[in-house]
Amino acid sequence: MVITAVAIGTRGDVEPLVELGKEMLQRGHSFRILTHESFRPMVENGGSTFLRINVDADHVMKYLVTDYKTSLDFAIGMFKLKKEDPSFMDETIAAIKGSDLVIYGTCSAFAYHAAEYLGIPCARVFYSPMDPTSQYSLYCDEFDSEKVRKSYDGLPEGMNLMTMLALNKWRREHGLKRWKLNSTYKEMNGKKLLTFYPTSRTLMRPDPNWGDHIHVTGYWYHPDQAGKEYRAPEDLEEYLAGGERPIFVAFGKAESPELAELQRIVLKALKETGLRAIIQAEQLDEADKVNSDQLYFIGKVPYAYIFDRVRAVVHHGGNTTNGLGLRTGLPTLVIALALDQYFYGRSDHHIGAGPEPLYIRRKLCTVEEVKRALAELISGKYDEGAKQTGIAIAQEDGVAEAADAIEGYIG
């Protein structure tokens, strides 16, 4: 079969699809990914066919991550991207023609309409909870309560309103029915859409009320294959051998004055605690990136390599990064920038794998807050919880489960 995935977003949105593509290719299927030019090397190195959509990946990061504070900000960002590439629907139709299945995510829901126009079945993929449940939510700090369930109210209508404003003219011109507030992305032509959550069931327990078309599969990656060809610099090997295991601190690719200040705050906190740490922070001034017995500053490095050599991790809480750290059994502190990251930070704490997250969208944390969180991270309180979580995650095979579901759905 021919499968085309449409991915508008960051590396974290594209990389799991590359891993799914590897699995589908091994099974004899064709796998294509329509995404930003900057991800071409990653897609092609994974063996999938790269298809280009004329959207700037840096603008996606700015509009949908760095500038994202409210749902309105998300909507504004999506309309900015639409304005920058007014032919995105034509590009999508050209890319998905001849497919047996189209896979899309939150920021690429427009692919549903292109697929409907061509009569191609769809599958949804989300990296954070979108189907209502009382167990957990992006929009509620609690777990397992009716308040959690109610936090999903209005979410489908908000998505439908955006669709009506952005695509009803296009739908009318292409002979499709007008999209309405009560329309649904959950089915097409009366058939429920196959839906995937490529995260661990330890963090997102499947809701028994969802139905068998929704799969929480485990992560989509092949971690044992990653990092094998990496050759560490000699000074990194010397640093790792020169004292107790460090923690690893990573801030991701997003850039903003707020994030730059956060990196300075965390650096100051680390210096004051005396903790050994490997730091990946692109917005720090070069004058601050001075290696010492305590601190080692690093650029690009495979996480599968570095996580095997540290005692704990600090990061923004992206789905795949969070999963890789937990799979290694590492206590995890999340300093979240966006709602989905905050959800995973809260989930890590809920299962006993890390301290309560810091959420800088609410308030930029202080040096003292970071120091307290770091002390809790390495206190030993979360070591066993992280270890048991890692054992559970290692038993999951997300890409295989997803591939089985796709073959069954299309068959």
Task: Describe the protein.
By secondary structure, the protein is α/β, with parallel strands linked by helices. It folds into 2 domains: 2-219 and 396-410, Rossmann fold; 225-394, Rossmann fold, CATH 3.40.50.2000. 42% of the residues lie in helices and 14% in strands. It is built from 16 helices and 15 strands. It has helices at residues 11-26, 40-45, 57-66, 71-84, 88-96, 110-118, 146-150, 155-173, 234-241, 257-273, 303-306, 319-327, 339-350, 367-377, 383-394, 398-410, and strands at 2-6, 30-35, 49-52, 101-104, 122-125, 187-188, 191-192, 194-197, 214-216, 247-250, 277-280, 295-297, 312-315, 332-336, 358-359. The strands form 3 sheets. It has a 7-stranded parallel β-sheet with strand order 3-2-1-4-5-8-9, sandwiched between helices. Helix 5 (88-96) crosses helix 6, helix 10 (257-273) crosses helix 14 (367-377) and helix 12 (319-327) packs across helix 15 (383-394). The chain is globular. The N and C termini lie close together (10 Å). The model has no long low-confidence stretch (mean pLDDT 91).
Q: Which structural class matches the secondary elements?
A: alpha/beta
Name the average pLDDT. 91
| CATH level-1 class of the largest domain | Alpha Beta
Estimate percent helicity: 40-55%
> Would you identify the regions where 5 or more consecutive residues have pLDDT less than 50?
none
For the report, how would you describe the main beta sheet? 7 strands, parallel
